[in-house]
Amino acid sequence: MDLILDMAKAAITLFIIVDPLGNIPIFIGLTKGMPKEARRKAFRTAIFTGFILLILFALMGQQILAFFGISLYSFMIAGGILLLIISIQILVRGGWEESTAPESVGVVPIGFPLLVGPGAITTTILSLQTSGPVVAVASVLIVFITVQAILMLIDPIYKFLGNSGTVVISKLMALLTAAIAIQYILSGVLWYLGST
């Protein structure tokens, strides 16, 4: 019973951090102009990339960071900078390198850092520390099955919003993403300033 509760708690927390519903306008903005099949290919690549990344961190997150000599806070700063660049490109240019192949868009920025960013990785490592590898891996599985279901429904959502609605919402979400990115950077920098 405790294992199921821990699993549910870990999965819900991770789902909130990954936030596939909140990111839908950004996903639509990033794949705007792509044919239907290319968009699906980008999302399949994103799901695969995000899933593999989080499973790796669920099993040996601390060892990976330690191997490269990277602290969690350095990772937060790097992820924050990448997210900020993506946000600025969406706000200024209206998209993320529109000529890029679906596989590339699926890996960066959709798979990483939008689906799996510093927040999701931190959450997964914390699940590993507090509840063990079974709970950490199970929560990743549950979340990514849900993410896949949501991304498969993105075409009807796109049709409902229309082109104008998509542009407005993707710009608004890009602004919020920029704010999240700055928060990541500030958290990392403040930790370093406080630790010196």
Largest sheet geometry: none
Question: What is the number of independent domains?
Answer: 1
Q: Could you tell me the mean pLDDT? A: 83
Give the number of DSSP strands: 0
Determine the N-to-C terminus distance.
44 Å
Radius of gyration: 17 Å
Give an overview in words:
Helices cover 86% and strands 0% of the residues. The chain has 8 helices and no strands. It has one domain. Helix 2 packs across helix 8. The longest helix is centred in the last third of the chain and has 42 residues, at 154-195. The model has no long low-confidence stretch (mean pLDDT 83). With 196 residues, it is mainly alpha-helical.
Index terms:
196 residues, 8 helices, 0% strand
